[in-house]
Amino acid sequence: MTTVEIGQALKRSEDFRLLTGKGKYVDDISLDGEARAVILRSPHAHARIVEIDRAAAAALDGVHLIVTGQDWLAEGFGPIPTRSAVNKNKDGSPLSEPPRHCLAIDRVRYVGEAVALIVADSEKIARDALELIDVTYEELPAVTDPRKALADGAPRIWDDIPNNLCVDFELGDEAATKAAFEAADHVISLDVENNRVTGVPIEPRGLVGTYDAETDTYLLYNSTQNVHAIRKTIAEDIFKISADKIHHIAPDVGGGFGAKNSVYPEPALVLYAAKQLQRPVKWIAERSESFLADTHGRNQSSKVQLALDSDGTFRALRTDTVGDIGAYCWTIGPFTPTGGSARTQGGPYAFETMYYSSRAVFTNTMPMDPYRGAGRPEGTYQIERIVEAAASQLGLDPVALRRKNLIPAEKLPMKSPMGLDIDSGNFPEVFERTLALSDRDGYSERVAASKAAGRARGFAIAPYLECTGGGPKEFAGIQFAADGTITLSVGSQGTGTGHETAMPQILSAKLGLPVEKIRYRQGDTDATPLGGGHGGSRCLEVGGGAVVRATEAVIDKAKAIAAHLLNSQADDISFADGQFSDAKTNQSTPMEEVVRASFETGRLPQDMEPGCLDSDAIFERGIISCPNGCHAAEVEVDPETGAVAVANYWIVDDFGTIINPLLADGQVMGGVAQGIGQALYEDAVYDEDTGQLLAGSLMDYALPRADLIPNMVIRYYEDAPTAKNPLGVKGAGEAGCCPAPPVIVNAILNALKPYGVTDLSMPVTSEKVWQAIHDAKP
Amino acid sequence: MPTISLTVNGQPVTEEVDAPTLLVKFLREQLKLTGTHVGCDTSQCGACVVHVNGEAVKSCTMLAVQADGAEILTIESLANNGTLHPMQQAFHDKHALQCGFCTPGMVMASIALVRDNPDPSEDDVRQGLEGNLCRCTGYQNIVQAVRAGAKNMRD
Ligand code: FES
Ligand code: FES
Question: What is the ipTM score, two decimals?
Answer without folding.
Answer: 0.98
